[in-house]
């Protein structure tokens, strides 16, 4: 039966949010975003005099998207990414309403979320990467040896931060110079480890990790000061502090090291499909965004170096 009457939209939204919480098990932060987006949608429909779900038209949903992008006195204009997230919530709500018999038709099915502008990954110049790596291990302490090994692995393998802190000692084969990384969807990939990363990890394993080991260590490769596995947040902090010590003024994150790994490989002539395998991308399309970065680099060098590049 299709629900009707005043407040129907708000009641249906509450039902949908309960479904997302109880049956889908969405995280609290995600659920909060859906709640905020759908409340704004309900207010938009109420402003248009809509009281029932079956009164909602495709034009109204499309109009909501326009309102998101343009903003109003109470809301700033949303970026394409934020507007797309909101439209996804609206589309999911209407699909649910039809499936559960709360509405007879889905007016949002043909309204496509805006395509966010393709953001190019931010890679560091090689000199900045080298400065960060040197700064990480400059003090020679137990934790400095760990920090240098961690950052050398991040840059030397292109690992995601979760993959790096998830490493166990046996995942590294320093004889064959390879490391087993466990990526998204529990997919594993074996990637080579360069000499700098191998040397840094060897120094850490022989001179630092034994001093950090505790009953809580288990097989974890990178340990914190209490002997437990190093967390993603702590690993991030290691990189930020090293960048500060190195005087690197750019915003730096673990993903910056991954971007730098890929960009520097392509700048050096690596095939994009090889880089795809090293990064663990399911599709080469994801990797090809890095080729845009290298084209920009080439264009910049050409513009500054070629005698007839400028008027």
Please give a handful of descriptors for the protein shown:
elongated; 14 helices; 311 residues; 3 strands; mainly alpha; disordered N terminus
Order of helices and strands: HHHHHHHEEEHHHHHHH
Largest sheet, if any? 3 strands, antiparallel
The N- to C-terminal Cα distance equals: 71 Å
Judged by helices, strands and strand pairing, the structural class is mainly alpha
> What's the helix count?
14
Characterize the overall form.
Answer: elongated
- Radius of gyration of CA atoms, rounded to a whole number: 25 Å
Low-confidence stretches: 1-6
Describe the structure.
The chain is mainly alpha-helical and 311 residues long. Helices cover 56% and strands 4% of the residues. It contains 14 helices and 3 strands. Strands 1-2-3 form a 3-stranded antiparallel sheet, with no helix packed on it. A hairpin with a 4-residue loop joins strand 1 and strand 2. Helix 3 (58-70) runs antiparallel to helix 4 (80-99), helix 5 (126-136) packs across helix 10 and helix 6 (142-157) packs antiparallel against helix 8. The chain is elongated and about 70 Å long. The termini are far apart. The model is unreliable at 1-6 (pLDDT under 50).
